[in-house]
Amino acid sequence: MASELQDLHADYEKRWGFRDPTDYVFKARKGLDEEIVKEISWLKQEPEWMTQIRLRALEVFRKKPMPNWGADLSELNFDEIYYYMRPTDRKGRSWDEVPEYIKKTFERLGIPEAERKFLAGVSAQYESEVVYHSMKEELARQGVIFCDTDTAVREYPELVQKWFGKVVPMADNKFAALNTAVWSGGSFIYVPPGVQVEIPLQAYFRINAENVGQFERTLIIADEGSFVHYVEGCTAPIYSTDSLHSAVVELVALKDSRIRYTTIQNWSKNVYNLVTKRAIAYEGATVEWVDGNIGSKVTMKYPSVYMVGRGARADILSIAFAGAGQHQDAGGKVVHAAPDTRSKIVSKSISKDGGRTTYRGLVEVQKGAVGSTCRVECDALMFGATSRSDTYPYMEINEDNVTIEHEASVSKVGEEQLFYLMSRGLDEDEAISMVVNGFIEPFTKELPMEYAVEMNRLIQLEMEGSVG
Amino acid sequence: MPVLEIRDLHTQVGDEPILKGVSLTINPGEFHAIMGPNGSGKSTLAYTLMGHPHYEVTAGDVLVDGESILELEPNERAQKGVFLAFQYPHEIPGVGMSDFLRTARASLTGEEVDILEFHDELEGRLKQIHMDPSFATRALNEGFSGGEKKKAEMVQMAILKPRIAILDETDSGLDVDALKAVAEVVNSMRDGKFSSLIITHYKRILNYVRPDFVHIMVDGRIVRSGGPELADQVEELGYEWVRAEA
Asked: Residue B142: closest CA among chain A residues belongs to which residue?
């Protein structure tokens, strides 16, 4: 017996590459080094291959320079960040510490008590049990896998190994490397061939502290001819004491499948939100990003679609809202790498009270992508003299037989428009929020109903007290 | 008590004086028309009454029900029953006409609006003015033709039920059918209390909406007032006649 146990122990060491777990206690600490990365992997009982991916990514992260072409990241200090905290470590924060503006927004949005505590990071769990369980059964019947990515690594290693890091390689950018080294949580979805998932899958149903964590990793694979709509985030502000949120989202849309990915990001206004979102669309596949950015201090996010098969389609619709002290640097990126591919990018931004929005987009048409069409449309709406909006539309067109359209507009919210609405009895705040809600209507109409309603209310709250 | 009383109103835009002492009294139920050549200050009067921030009142007063409204915001003036049908109505993308008017009416009355009743009422008014009911769900004025915008202003007026409606050249650019439809809506508002101030270049609309009084405005002043026959004289003799007399 004793020797068997010893063998096991030896085997454990060999198989998992870890120290004996009994003499090891994880303690959350600031900063990032190999030890931390190994500890994260150990805590999650990951297979060796994932540990190795993490360690390689750490090396890449160290070598990669900070991006200097976008938002100002100079205040970001990597040594001052907790890269992993167990949900249990997070407890102890009290409701009193939650900033007043967030509590107020919860109240005015009518978020239920239990949810408020979760969103504020005071409680670690919030699950809408009933809905989630009935949904889980239906999904299982269809063969759909929907779980957190940690679970997927353990239970569906072949699928994860095949696609993890293939859409967003760790060397893509510094923050993709960071995420790959320290990722935790996020969603994993696999939809079998031909399966149409009728209801939108929402992280909200199985939300927990890991999901709203700093370094989520999401991987969605839609097999041939399937369809899935995934909704990430919620309109209510999510309070985080962490200053950095850096997620990676990878979508794989196999032949003739369609993935729609909807995000509403409303991080508290102390967060750097630096996210890499990318999709590969194979022949005849469609990928739609519906991306809303309301919160955070700085966001840099450019959902991308690489159309690698004939007839693939990309649709990127984003809105960004920047109030005082916020910079939303967002946009989209499409790569036409096959013939007859079609893409559309629509970007709408609102800046007020000195907030700053940037549209940054890349359209790349590779040689041979004949018959491709691309349309880019960006509209900015500004309130107040100190607000700012910039547009950086990059184009790399290496094929002649293509159609590219670009349209941009910037409007100061018209005194005339407001006067018109006010003359009908609306006060200034009502008039402003009406103009803004109308402006983002192309976005809200793409949201599931309950989100659309909340979104309009949220914008109304955000716009209160702005001067036209 | 007059519903609207304008007393020696002076207005300027920037440094340029435009209204140079306009006085006018409108009693409940009365329809007044203001005619005048281009640049005489008619639209300035309309904007000033509604409280447009660019028009600065330098002297005089405007009273609704005997109380000055000069310090009030446009929405507060609307709450007192003032309505302006715009010469160039603005497009509000993404805001459905029905949603907008329901919000506006709720703001004006301070009461919840019954959605179904409201829907029927709006549809009735759209039909009355020969507009397709689908306009209710279209974005406010967006992509409307010039004539449709003018007609939509009349629908808004009918739905919001003001006590004094200022029509700023609502008739201009309308074909005869549209003009008749506009007139029908305005006339249907007559109830002995509803009053209107119709601003126009031409007598044409006054053939369909009979005014009780006609005023001629030239160079920021009302230079002549009279009954409906005054409009006929303008039609016949042009504004030069009044200018010469003034």
From this structure: A438
B-chain residues within 8 Å CB-CB of A426? 75, 103-104, 107
- The answer to whether the beta carbons of residues A293 and A320 sit under 8 Å apart is yes
Residue B25 lies in a domain: yes
- Domain with B217, as residue range(s), is 4-90+163-245
- Considering only CB atoms, which chain A residues are within 8 Å of B78? 422-425
Q: What is the pLDDT along chain A (468 residues), one digit of tens a residue?
A: 444 444 444 443 444 433 333 334 566 678 899 999 999 999 889 999 999 999 999 999 999 999 888 889 988 888 888 888 765 555 445 777 777 777 777 776 666 666 666 666 555 444 444 455 567 788 889 999 988 898 899 999 999 999 999 999 999 999 999 999 999 888 899 999 999 998 888 765 434 444 445 888 999 999 999 999 998 876 666 666 668 889 999 999 999 999 999 998 888 888 899 999 999 999 999 999 999 999 899 999 999 999 999 999 999 999 999 999 999 999 999 999 999 999 999 999 999 989 999 999 999 999 999 999 999 999 999 888 888 999 999 999 999 999 999 988 887 777 788 999 999 999 988 898 888 889 999 898 888 877 787 787 788 777 775 543
Which residues between 125 and 184 in chain B have a beta carbon less than 8 angstroms from any beta carbon of chain A? Answer: 139, 156, 160
**CA A262, A438, A359: angle at the middle one, nearest 5?**
55
Cα A336 → chain centroid: 23
A440/B156 touch (CB, cutoff 8 Å), yes or no:
no
In a domain, B146, yes or no: no
Answer whether residue B118 is part of any domain.
no
* Binary contact (B84, A415; C-beta < 8 A): no
Would the ipTM clear 0.90, i.e. be above it?
Answer: yes
Q: Do A428 and B50 touch (CB under 8 A)?
A: no
Q: Does B107 touch chain A (CB under 8 A)?
A: yes
Contact A362, A334 (CB under 8 A): yes
Closest CA–CA distance from residue A439 to any residue of chain B (Å): 6
Provide the whole-model pTM.
0.80
- Subunit contact B95:A441, Cβ cutoff 8 A: yes
Is residue B102 a part of any domain in this protein? no
Give which of A424, A432, A443, A456 to mutate to test B binding, by max B Cβ within 10 Å. Answer: A424
The helix/strand count (H/E) of chain B reads as 8, 10
Exposure letters A250-287 (e unless 16+ CB within 10 A, then b):
bbbbbbbbbbbbbbbbbbbbebbbbbbbbbbbbbbbbb
CATH number for B34:
3.40.50.300
Residue written as tokens 């309505």?
A: B83
- CB contacts, 8 Å: A414 with chain B: 90
Whether residue B74 and residue A416 make contact (CB cut-off 8 A), yes or no, is no
Choose, out of B55, B103, B108, the residue to mutate when testing the contact with A (most A CBs < 10 Å): B103
Which of A420, A428, A429 would best serve as a mutation to test chain B binding (most B beta carbons within 10 A)?
A420
User: Is the Cβ of A439 closer than 8 Å to some Cβ of chain B?
Assistant: yes
Task: Please tell me chain B's helix, strand, coil percentages from 3-state DSSP, rounded to the nearest 5.
Answer: 40, 25, 35
Q: Flag if B92 and A435 touch (Cβ within 8 Å).
A: yes
What is the gyration radius of the CA atoms in chain B, in angstroms?
Answer: 18
Q: Would you tell me which residues 360-419 of chain A have a C-beta closer than 8 angstroms to some C-beta of chain B?
A: 414-417, 419
What is the number of structural domains in chain B? Answer: 1
Give the single-character DSSP code of B204: G
Using N-to-C axis directions, what is the helix angle for A48-63 and A174-182, rounded to 10°? 150
- How many whole angstroms separate alpha carbon A11 and alpha carbon A15? 6
